[in-house]
Amino acid sequence: MLPYSCSEKPGRTALRGGRILVVLAALLCTVAIGVIDHKMRGYEAGIRGLKTQLDASKDAAVRSRRAADDDEMTPFRDEPVSRSVQHNFPGEGGALFTRWGREVCGKSKDLDTVYTGVAGGSHYTKHGGGSNYLCLPTRNVSWDHYTDAAQTKNYLYGSEFQTHGQDGFLSTVNAEGVAAVADYDVPCAVCRARTRTSTVMIPARTACPNDWHKEYQGYLMSAHETHHGRTEFVCVDKDPDVAIGTYESKDGALFYLVEAQCGSLPCGPYIAGREIACVVCTK
């Protein structure tokens, strides 16, 4: 064994063994370091390859899951829809409605999900902006001309359930195990009933008229009456879905249960303080 360590300084080795041994030891160290460096580069390349494969597998899984979700929805295309796509929607017309609070339209075979998304609107503290809720798609979002800077002073915000202390009204059977839906985002689905042509939302009812089909039942909701912004009254499904991971009080376009005020409304059928039910019907 050479009386030299790769970590020692040449001067100390020279005192013990001479310059020839110093040069030889230095060459051996250089070769050893080169071999180690080569192996390390190989290991790093292998790790990068495994990471690339893992990322590709994850991307494929996400694409597969999204494709499975999108199979049930109307295809989004910029070009005209071909006949091969049109045959999935037999007949003409069809009743359109938004199912507020759910990401699904229903189990009926004659229901098509046009798209699913999340409710949005103007901020509850603002005087201007829009006065209605929108069902905003969360997949296949596209842009035309745009600039990434605040310019128009007209903004679109997300939504939240504001049902604190009223958790017995909107159930949690579809809420993936959460205790209450308050402060979660409000999902929505735009639906088409192929064999029907008319839609109506009836407040203060839980059943549809004779010969009408009941799409879903729920509660009337809107913005709080003390807020600056106004919204429409919508019927929110009484068994809403919940998107896990959206529990955060960011406010925006808010959903409050609507209560009756008798005196201005006819007392008797309407009782002060009672939450207004609703039903969405098609025919």
Protein traits:
283 residues, 2 domains, 10-stranded mixed sheet, 3 helices, Noncollagenous (NC1) domain of collagen IV, elongated, alpha+beta
Structure description:
The protein is α+β, with helices and mostly antiparallel strands. It has two domains: 10-67; 90-139 and 155-283, Noncollagenous (NC1) domain of collagen IV (Beta Complex), CATH 2.170.240. The protein has helices spanning 10-17, 19-70, 83-86; strands spanning 95-100, 111-121, 134-137, 157-161, 187-193, 199-203, 213-222, 234-237, 253-257, 277-282. Strands 1, 2, 3, 4, 5, 6, 7, 8, 9 and 10 form a ten-stranded mixed beta sheet that branches. Helix 1 runs antiparallel to helix 2. The N and C termini lie far apart (95 Å). Residues 58-70 and 76-89 have low confidence and may be disordered.
How would you summarize the topology of this molecule?
Layout: H1 10-17, H2 19-70, H3 83-86, E1 95-100, E2 111-121, E3 134-137, E4 157-161, E5 187-193, E6 199-203, E7 213-222, E8 234-237, E9 253-257, E10 277-282
Parallel strand pairs: 4-9
Antiparallel strand pairs: 1-5, 2-3, 2-4, 2-5, 6-10, 7-8, 7-9, 7-10
Label the structural class. alpha+beta
For the biggest sheet, the summary is: 10 strands, mixed
Average of per-residue pLDDT values? 76
- With helices defined by DSSP (H or I, 4 residues minimum), what is the helix count? 3
Low-pLDDT runs of 5+ residues are 58-70, 76-89
Quick description:
The chain has helices spanning 10-17, 19-70, 83-86; strands at 95-100, 111-121, 134-137, 157-161, 187-193, 199-203, 213-222, 234-237, 253-257, 277-282.
